[in-house]
Design goal:
With about 160 residues, the chain is α/β, with parallel strands linked by helices. It has a single domain (about 10-155), classed as YqgF/RNase H-like domain (Nucleotidyltransferase, domain 5, 2-Layer Sandwich), CATH 3.30.420. The protein has 5 helices and 5 strands, in the order E-E-E-H-E-H-E-H-H-H. A 5-stranded mixed sheet has the order 3-2-1-4-5, with helices on both faces. Strand 4, helix 2 (about 70-90) and strand 5 form a beta-alpha-beta unit. Helix 3 (about 105-115) packs across helix 4 (about 120-145). The longest helix has 26 residues, at about 120-145. The two termini are about 20 Å apart.
């Protein structure tokens, strides 16, 4: 059941060199890219993530989870799962994994189609926008089909 108190979320597209980041709002069901975070020796930059979370104070964190039979993508899936567990453990903010469905490829295609030139960190944050908006749409869909607690008590 969707948590009625969620106003903002932060989405992550974990990579080996950069982690794309986006902030989304449940009211507008929209997300916007934030500056990607450079990895430190292929590990998350926890101080940068801490500053980000202190600045935006999200109620939920979303992490893109790649799915594939390819070994390299399975390794990234394991890293994304670990990253999600670490986020929740460190910051005590509910964290959810969501199928990223080749969002990096889609972000590259959107960049090419728009004629804008973007570097790798910007593409990773655009992928984080796609991940976050996918979660926001599902959140709104679930919220619209579930009765509110007020309507249940009125019956």
């Amino acid at each position: 059941m969707p948590d009625q108190n969620i106003v903002s979320v932060i989405g992550f597209d974990l990579g080996t060199s950069w982690t794309g980041v986006a902030v989304g709002q449940t009211l507008t069901v929209r997300a916007r890219p934030l500056a990607a975070i450079k990895s430190i020796r292929q590990r998350p930059d926890w101080p940068a993530i801490t500053r980000l979370l202190e600045q935006w104070t999200p109620q939920k964190l979303i992490v893109g989870l790649p799915h594939s039979d390819y070994d390299e993508i399975q390794i990234m899936g394991n890293k994304a799962t670990r990253f999600a567990r670490q986020l929740q453990g460190r910051y005590h903010i509910e964290t959810e994994l969501i199928d990223e469905g080749l969002t990096t490829r889609e972000a590259i295609n959107l960049t090419v189609e728009s004629g804008q030139r973007k570097d790798k960190p910007e593409i990773d944050s655009l992928a984080a926008v796609l991940i976050t908006e996918s979660w926001l749409r599902e959140y709104q869909r679930q919220k619209s089909i579930l009765p509110s607690s007020e309507s249940l008590t009125e019956k």
